[in-house]
């Protein structure tokens, strides 16, 4: 008897029930298309109520494991796929819980319940997979593909946001509608980061000693830690209030610290994502020691932050000259 599968099925049914209940009883906040705060308060992810995402996950999980219990057969690649999906949902819920503690958000117990259920499901699936490391080794091609997808989403989203800022700031202000667009793109970056974390751990577990001995790998993990912290600042502190980024004459002295941090976070994000990309793709970087790579990265961060502040100062000076 596959008891872990029974636990997965039970948690999935409970999850669906709670998700449907929360979706039907949720506060119907009228979400303004040009207000990023409304998207956060309404608990939307990529303009979709997060309960619908949860219902979809628990629905897939219940169908898959009901089928496995009926035929009394398990499929390793399907178990691994569902484990990755469960972990993705769990980390997405961590993001939603984090957003609840921003000024624009609101904590909801349902989110915590869904997180706990998804973690239980993930652990139950993991417990059912014998020789987990070997399964990961066999699936390395697929986890590498997921890793690359995460990099594409994160790097692409970051690049787009930075270019958007340059474009939008031609008018010396980010409008509410433009802020919503960038908030949505920042959520795509979050998905990319989640994929990177999950696939990165999966790849790491296939050769723990080898990766721990790699300075290039350790440096990449350091960069991803910076990306994660920087992403938290971006999504919790900046994204909900991007329309405050205004360098027009009446707003020059308003929210100055917020503007400085916003420009710096954008610079850190760009440098860090590209650093992670090059560390992953350029094998010749393996010849450098961790300290050398770290110093180079810190120098790049310092230069990028300085350039971002110079860019802000230049635009402010340009506005003042027009007065």
Identify low-pLDDT runs.
Answer: none
Count of DSSP strands: 2
Report strand %: under 5%
H/E order of the elements? HHEEHHHHHHHHHH
Strand order of the largest sheet: 1-2
Shape: flat
List its salient traits.
transmembrane, 1% strand, 323 residues, mainly alpha, transmembrane helix, membrane
Fold and architecture overview:
Keywords: Membrane, Transmembrane, Transmembrane helix. By secondary structure, the chain is mostly helical. The protein has two domains: 130 residues; 186 residues, no CATH class. 77% of the residues lie in helices and 1% in strands. It has twelve helices and two strands, in the order H-H-E-E-H-H-H-H-H-H-H-H-H-H. It is flat, with a radius of gyration of 22 Å. The chain starts with a helix and ends with a helix. The mean pLDDT is 84.
Brief synopsis:
The chain crosses the membrane at residues 6-23, 53-71, 77-95, 107-126, 146-168, 180-205, 217-240, 261-282, 294-313. This protein is mainly alpha-helical.
Secondary structure blueprint with pairings:
Blueprint lengths: L2 H23 L10 H6 L2 E2 L2 E2 H22 L4 H25 L8 H20 L3 H7 L1 H29 L7 H30 L2 H5 L2 H24 L17 H26 L8 H33 L1
Antiparallel strand pairs: 1-2
Helix pairs in contact: 1-3, 1-5, 4-5, 4-8, 7-8, 7-11, 8-10, 10-11, 10-12, 11-12
């Amino acid at each position: 008897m596959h008891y872990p599968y029974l636990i997965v099925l039970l948690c999935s049914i409970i999850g669906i029930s709670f998700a449907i209940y929360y979706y039907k009883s949720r506060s119907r906040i009228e979400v303004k298309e040009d207000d990023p705060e409304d998207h956060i308060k309404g608990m939307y992810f990529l303009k979709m109520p997060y309960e619908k995402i949860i219902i979809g996950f628990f629905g897939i999980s219940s169908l898959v494991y009901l089928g496995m219990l009926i035929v009394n057969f398990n499929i390793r690649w399907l178990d691994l796929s569902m484990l990755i999906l469960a972990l993705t949902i769990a980390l997405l819920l961590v993001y939603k819980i984090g957003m609840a503690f921003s000024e624009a958000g609101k904590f909801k117990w349902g989110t915590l319940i869904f997180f706990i259920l998804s973690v239980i499901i993930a652990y139950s699936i993991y417990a059912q997979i014998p020789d987990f490391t070997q399964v990961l080794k066999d699936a390395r091609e697929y986890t590498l593909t997921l890793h690359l997808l995460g990099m594409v989403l994160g790097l692409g989203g970051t690049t787009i946001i930075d270019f958007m800022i340059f474009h939008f700031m031609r008018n010396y202000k980010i409008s509410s509608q433009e802020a919503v667009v960038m908030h949505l793109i920042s959520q795509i970056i979050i998905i990319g980061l989640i994929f990177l974390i999950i696939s990165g751990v999966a790849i790491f577990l296939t050769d723990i000693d080898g990766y721990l001995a790699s300075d290039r790998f350790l440096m990449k993990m350091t960069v991803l830690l910076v990306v994660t912290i920087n992403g938290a600042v971006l999504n919790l502190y900046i994204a909900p209030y991007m329309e405050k980024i205004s360098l027009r004459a009446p707003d020059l002295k308003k929210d100055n610290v917020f503007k400085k941090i916003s420009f710096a976070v954008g610079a850190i994000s760009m440098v860090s994502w590209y650093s992670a990309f090059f560390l992953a793709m350029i094998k010749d970087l393996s010849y450098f020691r961790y300290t050398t790579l770290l110093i180079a990265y810190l120098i790049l961060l310092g230069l990028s932050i300085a350039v971002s502040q110079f860019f802000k100062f230049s635009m402010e000076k340009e506005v003042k000259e027009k007065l």
